[in-house]
Specification:
It is a single chain. By secondary structure, the chain is mostly beta strands. Helices cover 7% and strands 44% of the residues. The strands form four sheets. It has a six-stranded mixed sheet. A six-stranded mixed sheet has the order 10-18-17-12-13-14, with no helix packed on it. A three-stranded antiparallel sheet has the order 2-7-6, with no helix packed on it. The protein is elongated and about 65 Å long. The N and C termini lie far apart (71 Å). This is Immunoglobulin domain-containing protein. Pfam families: V-set. Keywords: Signal.
């Protein structure tokens, strides 16, 4: 029982003193494998992975306590591989339902405790789950979410794997292009976000706006992803 006591002590210490890491967005095609890398430090004493607050993998450095998928939750059915040295997690044969938020927690390393969030978007194979949208250059186009946002919802839009808009259902956090696009300002105030549905409108479209737009919504009760391929016809 000593290792259980150590594990609980580490968890309590982490909750009080744990460090936060930057959120990482990862995109993968359905059926492929994807690895979520632990870049903090190799060989920490305790490693834990959560998928939407559900434990999917956990290990102590001396391997006296290990659970991977089936032993923890069973959602992934032997599709998880955990690197015991680095803590990196590989998801094999990915599915659309694997889209969502993954949290890595480590403790007991020389650099202290760490915490990192990965947003994983699994795109449908061969266009399945992708909406094709065509628009004439200069016109506006709206990418419809077909949802009504609740206060606990969080919606993100990506363009070619870069965040361009984000909004929470209670409107406590909103960013569009300039604020959340890593300083690139690609759309320069040509984006309009519907506060009720999270639908995205691109105004005065340009041919350079052609590409993949990924939509992700997360709440306490659900996670959904949708992909739009937008083609802007030049004049």
């Amino acid at each position: 029982m000593k290792h259980v006591s150590n594990l609980l002590s580490l968890l309590m210490y982490f909750l009080v003193y744990g460090a936060s890491g930057a959120e990482v967005s990862v995109f993968v095609t359905e059926g492929d494998s994807v690895t979520l890398h632990n870049d903090f430090e190799t060989n920490p004493y305790w490693i834990r992975w959560d998928f939407h607050d559900i434990i999917i993998a956990q290990i102590l450095r001396d391997r006296r306590y290990i659970c991977i998928d089936d032993q923890c939750n069973g959602r992934f059915r032997d599709r998880l591989q955990l690197d015991h040295q680095t803590g990196s997690l590989t998801i094999t044969n990915t599915r659309i339902t694997d889209s969502g938020y993954y949290q890595l927690r480590t403790a007991g390393s020389r650099k202290g405790n760490s915490n990192r969030i990965f947003t994983v978007v699994v795109r449908g194979f061969s266009g399945v789950g992708t909406d094709d949208v065509s628009v004439e250059e200069g016109d506006s186009v709206t990418l419809q979410t077909d949802v009504e946002m609740n206060k606990q919802d969080r919606i993100r839009w990506y363009f070619n794997e870069t965040i361009i808009t984000e909004i929470t259902g209670d409107l406590s956090f909103i960013c569009t292009d300039v604020q959340c696009n890593e300083g690139t300002e690609r759309f320069r105030d040509r984006l309009k976000l519907d506060n009720q549905t999270g639908s995205l409108t691109i105004m005065n479209t340009r041919t350079t706006d052609s590409g993949l737009y990924d939509w992700l919504i997360k709440s306490n009760s659900r996670i959904s992803a949708r992909i739009f391929f937008v083609y802007v016809n030049g004049k």
